[in-house]
Amino acid sequence: MCLGLPMTIVETDGVSALCAFRGERRRISMLLLSNPPVGTKVLVHIDTAIRRLDEAEARLIADAIEGLTAVLGGEDCDRFFADLIEREPQLPEHLRLG
């Protein structure tokens, strides 16, 4: 399984950026995005920023990753998936049968 990480741009030169998530910093390619400023949240996959994220979406992704970490550690994970308690998860349209 591949995960995209919601990282925050700490510094950038337009071609690459130093990004942070959960205390980790790494140099990321910014070639797919049009020069987002410092502080922007981006979805990073294989050390490449693939799209910008708003704060709410970045938080949902970060919570899901924290939830997976909790499950792997044998801890309760419900607090990380609070948005699912209020609604029934839905499959995307392209995955629904009939």
UniProtKB/TrEMBL annotation:
Classification via Pfam families: HupF_HypC (PF01455)
Family, similarity comment: Belongs to the HupF/HypC family.
PANTHER family for the chain: HYDROGENASE MATURATION FACTOR HYBG
Protein name stated in the entry: HypC/HybG/HupF family hydrogenase formation chaperone
Species classification: Bacteria, Pseudomonadati, Pseudomonadota, Alphaproteobacteria, Hyphomicrobiales
